[in-house]
Amino acid sequence: MNYKNNLHRFENLSVEKEVIVLLHGFGFNSNIMQPLAEQLHSTHHVVVIDLPGYGDNINLTFPDNLNDLTNSVMPQIPEEAILIGWSLGGLLALQLQQHSTKVKKTILLASSPCFIEKNNWPGMSEKIFDLFYNQIEKNPASGMEMFLYLNVQGLVNEKTEFQLLKQHWLTQLMPEKITLLNSLKILKESDLRDIGQNAHYILSERDQLINPQIIKYLNPLSAVSLAEQGHAIHFSNTSLVANHILRIINEF
Description:
- By secondary structure, the protein is of the alpha/beta class.
- The protein has a single domain (about 10-250), classed as Alpha/Beta hydrolase fold, catalytic domain (Rossmann fold).
- Helices cover about 40% and strands about 15% of the residues.
- The protein is built from 9 helices and 6 strands, in the order E-H-E-H-E-H-E-H-H-H-H-E-E-H-H.
- The chain has helices at about 35-40, 65-75, 90-100, 125-140, 140-150, 160-170, 175-190, 235, 240-250; strands at about 20-25, 45-50, 80-85, 105-110, 200-205, 225.
- The protein has a 6-stranded parallel β-sheet.
- Strand 3, helix 3 and strand 4 form a beta-alpha-beta unit.
- Helix 2 packs across helix 3, helix 4 (about 125-140) crosses helix 5 and helix 5 (about 140-150) crosses helix 6 (about 160-170).
């Protein structure tokens, strides 16, 4: 697979800088991670990957289960990589860390080891998730519009952030419906709580898609919840997120 590597080619990676791999989430291609990549590339090699079915890999099939998605991406991960995954990309990062010795550290952005509400686990209700899935199945464009709004809902500058996020999303090719549906299927079916404590988390107090109360179930030394931030935290406040990422890398 010819995955994007926006800032460096694998064969040019030196030992002088640690390697960060950015993994995007549902609905967006790797361009949504580009502002964060620009913030981090002065201190690290940054690899930005398009998952199958998205961006430069839009013609590839997005798998309908996390194991197959992990296997498709694993060959593209450099040795000693620090994985940073947003939303769905966080689940993928956890699974990659579990099954590959190449992963040095994992940081989840506005993500969870289990997206759906369970006994003793705060998440999105399965009923609401299914309503969103059905909307994507019926009308992908309308469903994505709803998703974009949920990314910024609750922010002080909600309307402005929505327009900026929408403009950014409109610059990319719309993923096929099957890519969106398979992405949601993985989000619904995956439960990685048994390995979730092995990662670091940057959460948002106003996230409408990831219940911020999951922080109560995580290691307090490896999780932080940022005030007045939403789901697309790395897009709306890139510098803040980059600073927290660098702190985690340097301290742990």
